Hints:
Blueprint: E1 9-11, H1 14-25, E2 28-31, E3 38-48, E4 52-55, E5 60-64, H2 67-73, E6 78-81, E7 84-87, E8 104-105, E9 112-119, E10 126-136, E11 139-150, E12 154-163, E13 167-176, E14 179-189, E15 194-204, E16 208-216, H3 223-226, E17 229-238, E18 243-255, E19 258-261
Parallel strand pairs: 1-6
Antiparallel strand pairs: 2-3, 3-16, 4-5, 5-8, 6-7, 9-10, 10-11, 11-16, 12-13, 14-15, 14-17, 17-18, 18-19
Amino acid sequence: MFPLPTTQRVFSSWKTFGDWARQNLFVTWVLSASGAQIVGIRANVSQDGTTHWYGGQPATLFTVRDPMAAFIGGTSGTVKIGATTYCMDRLGCSNANPNTRSYLSTTVIPILLSTVNACSADGLHCQQSETWETHFFPVSDIGADIEVTRGGGFRRQEHFCWKNGFIPWVCVRRSGSNQLALAGSWHSQSPLAPLDIPASRVRNNAISLTKRFWSFSPSVRTIEDDITGVCAAQELRVGAAFTPIVRARTGSGSRSGDHFSCPTTAL
């Protein structure tokens, strides 16, 4: 079960917050122009499968859409660093009810660049592929994912249960085998920082796979802030040799204000 804080996290300074984030979230610090102060954090995140939190009023089993923002913002959606309170939720933090948090959802509602639903020729195996590029002060969240929606060679059945009779838990049953593959490319043609960053992830026996670039920086622009396009190729592979049976490509964006389409060739 995801360790979501139910009270606001409070840090005396950016140094204290940065040290905590590096220890708990394995982030990289964003430094001031002089390099003397921590002014933000950023991370290259890979996620296999989904994670959940049980709580709220009434108590509900939530899917955690953005683990980074959720771990920092918790149910309130906010974090206090020094004298300033920051909102980690793109939909705002005026409502303290966790049921309103955009990074906690019973039905995932991301801001998508594109989403593709594709199936194998026999219709037995299907996947949903997505890319997104979300910028809201002071957070940037850019990524791509693949999720098995039918068949897929590997089955993972989740249901709510009680561990040891009293701990709320998600119980899992597994069977079969498969392989998910995701190859992405994050783009920008900012005059200050042209980018073309590749990212890839392969996972055996999985129902979903996510790759994201994430940053939280109120005063200094990060690489993530400059990303204006995401392209991804996703594959579901099954069989003895993990033969690709479902393929999809997602993504779009803008470069210096001009719309561009993702390449049709392999990334």
